[in-house]
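I'm curious: can you give me some protein's one-letter sequence along with its backbone structure tokens because I've never seen that pairing?
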Amino acid sequence: MARSDVVATYSIVACDLDARQWGVGVQSKFLAVGSVVPWAEPHVGAIATQSYANPRYGPDGLALLREGHSAAEVVELLTAADEGRAERQVGAVDGRGGAATFTGEACHDWAGGRTGNGYAAQGNILVSQETVDALATTFEQNGHLSLAERLIECLAAAQTAGGDRRGQQSASLFVVEKDAGYANLSDVVVDLRVDDDELPIVELRRLYRMHNELFGVTPPEDWLTVDEALAAELRDRLGRLGYDGELDKAFNDWAGTENLEDRVDGIDRIDPVVLGALRKQSS
């Protein structure tokens, strides 16, 4: 097995069983960490592979989880078969919320992990254990947030606690849920990557806000009825932007151009996020 250079990294692998979501949040002093570390599949589980990462841990680990092995069994099977395990680090969460983490004895200090209900937190070449503790504590204290939001908060807290002692470079947020991604035809709910930035977690948070504006879901009861007055406003604002003709077509053409089509369902009612975007753009 070829040796990889994803060394200094901290991550949290987690699930929200009520929301049927699994995901990984990760930050590293490494270019494009999201291309190597995070792996997840709905109802199967999630895995983070790091510290001279063995990329096969991702697909092979998911295959083992798919067969019904627990997170602890998967971590044991992966590392037992790997001659380079002394330098590896891996975290896993299974489809039932079981979690396991492994840190090889040759990982660079500080290195270690911690597990709890529905999560595995781990890191290496960290300032101290406080980074991993911050990942765990923040996850435990933010059950009211969506899984994606919890993972971002975990990364931010871990960085504040010290983070990677070499500094920052890239971060990634990956969350899956069956048929809940784009157009309800994808399992990927969030897949955001900051490949090279001085403040990757700050940038990741900005990207998530943008993602949520485009692809988030406003509860149906919060949508607004398009009465005569609101319809007149929509025609006026769309006209200012060059979208004339029948309101339904003009509105859908504008929404599609702005990548907001996932938040549109006819013209009888309107998502307030979409209305806000139109008002802002046409002011």
